[in-house]
Amino acid sequence: MKAVFMLEHGNVDVLQYGNVPEPEIDEDEIKIRVKACGINRLDIFTRAGKRGVKVNFDGPHILGGDVAGDVVEIGKSVENFKIGQRVVVNPRLVCSKCKDCLTGNDESCMRYRMLGTSINGGYAEYTKTHKDNVFEIPDSLSYEGAAALPTVYVPCWNMFKRRAQLKSSETVLIASASSGVGSAAIQFAKFAVGATVIATTSNEFKAQRAKDVGADFVINYNEETIANKVMEVTEGRGADVIFDHVGTDFWNQAIPVLAPRGRYGICGVTSGYKADLQMGTLFMRNQSIFGIHMGKRNDLSEIIRLVGDRVIKPVIHNTFDLESVQLAHDEMDKNEFFGKLIINVP
To answer: How many structural domains is the chain composed of?
Structure first.
């Protein structure tokens, strides 16, 4: 099959287009003819061997976790799926054996693997995954739209619905509106919850797009101070919930404006891992800080339902064919896009 693979870590030049063997499935797996695959920041880190995602190369490694396509083969123990069914994949594969998995808390499984990082993914004509990670998509949802969902919307569900329990009467501050997860968080908080949304970004183009997808207020941090603007908008109270997928750079500007009883959620650290914390403020103001990594496996079904009900809509900036993956990685590195970058696999 045709695929984009790498044999070593490095810059975009390590991404090679060529032929590799098709995956062979076990009895509890499903083989998928890939039609579209989302590109995530994790792909960039994995390619480069950064952020703790070095690959143990024992052959060609294929990136890409957010896969949408058609079922072409099912294992002997697979039920409720049929050949030709349109599906999307949750890329976080849990062990289904540990205490957390067995008690319904699979988002806390520490034996998980990620499609495209731990195991071969979707920059290819075919991929395979465990049957429990495959979800049917409606005919109204395109393959590109489905591939824009898992890695960005599942954390939103987990953070806003399960952990922070964001309310429609509250205000949320969202980092980096232009990223895939930032644009997803804006839509989810605004249209699935009904909260007031403040988003941050770096220029006027991105600011307008953030408003287009649902932000009530947008802060261009190159022109105004995040803390001052948040306190102005909230009349001195601060943000009830903060959605941080950036890390150190955003933390230093956002933590001072967390409201009393506020909840600060972290789901990414692209700008750095370490930060200073004033613990006295934390307990005096009854604040909470927590982290999430994706969510429960079945959260993706809730996201698909919201898309089907037209509550949220995938935000796609650009699409690329499989042979042009290097160009797609270059575009992500430039940080001049808004929403998701998607690979089409004809």
So the answer is: 2
By C-alpha distance, which of 296, 319, 297 is closest to 148?
Answer: 319
Token look-up 């569900």 returns 157
Residues 282 and 190 in one domain: yes
| Rounded-to-integer distance, Cα 343 and Cα 324, Å | 8
Cα-based distances in Å from 149 to 95, 225, 341: 22, 31, 11
The full 3-state SS of 183-232, as one line of letters, equals: HHHHHHHHHHHCCEEEEEECCHHHHHHHHHCCCCEEEECCCCCHHHHHHH
Instruction: Return the amino acid letter for 337.
Output: F
Choose among 149, 148, 143, 204: nearest CA to 177.
Answer: 204
284 & 166 share domain: yes
- CATH number of the domain encompassing residue 228: 3.40.50.720
Q: Which two tokens stand for residue 295?
A: 């969510």
| Residue 270 in this model has a pLDDT that exceeds 90 | no
Structural domain including 44 reads: 2-149+314-344
Per residue in 122-141, pLDDT (tens digit) is 999 999 999 999 999 999 99
Residue 86 bridge partners (DSSP): 70
- Confidence band, pLDDT 50/70/90 cuts, at residue 106: very high
For 20, 25, 145, the CA distances from 62, given in Å and listed in that order, are 10, 16, 21
Residue 33 CB burial class (10 angstroms; 0-12, 13-18, ≥19): middle
Helix (H) or strand (E) holding 280: helix 279-284
Location of structure tokens 């294929």: 62
In a domain, 223, yes or no: yes
Looking at the structure, do residues 106 and 236 belong to the same domain, yes or no?
no
